[in-house]
Sequence to fold (451 residues):
Amino acid sequence: MTTEILIVDDNSDIRNILNELISDAGYKTRVAANFSQALSEIDKKIPDVAILDVKLDKGDNDGIQLLSHIKSKNKDVPVIMISGHANIEMAISSLKHGAFEFVEKPFDQPRLLNFIRRAVENLNLKNLNKEYENKLFSSFDLIGNSKNIETIREQIEKISLTDSRITINGPSGSGKELVARKIHKKSKRNNGPFVILNGALLDNEKYEQELFGEEKENGSISYGALEKANKGTLLIDQISDIPLEIQSKILRVLIDQKFKRVNGSNDIKVDVRLISSSSKDLKNEIEMGNFREDLFHRVSVFEINIQPLSSRISDIPLLIKYFSRKISENYNIKELDIDENDSYILNHNWKGNVRELRNLIERIAILQPDTKDKISNIIKESLKNDNFQEKVTKNSLSVTLKEAREKFEKEYLTIQLKKFNGNISKTANFVGMERSALHRKLKGLGIKEFN
Fold:
């Protein structure tokens, strides 16, 4: 796709020179002669690169306003500022507002072309990084054979066919965003945008602007998440952290199916599927007065619940094998040979859930150990603070040998049962017991069997 460059200058001679120079270099161009035309061109379609005169017809430094407007739409767009009235303060102001370069008139054409090439390279690199990150994330599958993961797969297949609002519950790092992306990818909206608004990361004063957008005094428009997600899916991550005042406005949007931008007077209607996620129990948040019950019923037409990784140990060996292959491919190295039944891994409490496990495997890939012993040492060093054996040893010092043995057997067999999804035959075979003997042992230790 040909890079498109927007040229904004109120001097027709400068516009023509720039247009010819840039077109001859193989780039597609658009031109604007004043602030209003420039604003219209930017709102019509954001350019790949922009060249803006600092002073146009609207007032002093109105080119800086256009720079800010472009950055509000897409902060990655490189903007080169030009001026025939240049001074240090003007250059500093441009760079502070996010300009890629500042060039004085009359400009040296080869130097300006070099800046443009660098700007295009910079944009392409950022786009490649985004593409890589999106492919890396969206290429991940929902891995596991636990009942919880099997249920979620079935739910995704059914829910994706509808436009029902969904809330995905689960601890941090468990894969809530991945589930949301899978739903979007399988839905009829899969060609539309997938937009994420993180309720936990926003400045309290910017919630409305981020969600609804804003109409500014200079006539420019900053689009919010709802408009950006039009014809697609909006994921409100950590919806429980959104202030009550904003919750009431979200509720009003869901009821009326329309909203106004901040400082705007016209109603905006969009077609968006809403998915919410939370690491907190929303029902508890309602009881504590932190979340609106009426909003809960609006956003939670259907709920998906992801269990912590420590509750679905059978998924861990599959995840180790999967991430070892994927991450090795991404780093272009030989596939990591990680023991899928490593006791340090299986007995770890995984407070960070799947994300923590993936980070561990990525750490191993970065260090590229060449032996199993080195891999094992990295795992032990990474997980030693929460290691199961260490906790057992510490807790066992104050009890009798019989009590310590029973405690170990109970925790050990509970973990093995979870690892094999409650399958008694597989568990008995792994621990080296007869099936009937394992039944008796479980009963004696008060361990409830599950299927």
About this structure: The radius of gyration is 28 Å. The longest helix spans residues 109-138.
